[in-house]
């Protein structure tokens, strides 16, 4: 019996590592910028905004309360950027994500992928992948690649506002993607 359990454990162990999220893989790497915002933090931000009489603050509260996961990784390391690109390619093949929009500006490429939500303006998941960024420095590092993942009940018409407020690379293009879906 012990041999069977040990054999199964050895067989399954590589699969566990293979399924690891790229965000988990690089969370503690010093060559990667990492941001992860928990649902609790979004609820706190939403609670702060809901008490306001400002319509934009109320829209922001509605948006952040609908997000269940927000993660961003950034890097200037070419090898890590290549690994992120490989992960994106594999992830797209194994998921329900479809391309929403591509933008090429100078040497930068921005791609948005989404998983359908309850209607054409809402998505369950949004993945933004940016490469070839020029002239963006964060804490003295020249950012080359950005990968952003949002999950929840996300209104594309509002999500650009969040990225604008967080001043993320690619945020202006994300706002454009949301505007394309306005009905």
SS-based structural class? alpha+beta
What is the count of DSSP helices, taking H or I runs of 4+ residues? 7
Over all CA atoms, what is the radius of gyration?
Answer: 18 Å
* Unreliable spans: 1-19
Outline: globular
Bin the helical content: 40-55%
Give the N-terminus to C-terminus distance in angstroms: 61 Å
Organism: Sungkyunkwania multivorans
Pfam family, one: DUF4252
Protein name: DUF4252 domain-containing protein
Secondary structure blueprint with pairings:
Layout lengths: L1 H17 L3 H5 L5 E6 L1 H12 L4 H11 L1 E9 L2 H16 L4 E8 L2 E9 L5 E10 L5 E2 L2 E2 L2 E11 H11 L4 H10 L3
Antiparallel strand pairs: 1-2, 2-8, 3-4, 4-5, 5-8, 6-7
Helix pairs in contact: 3-4, 4-6, 6-7
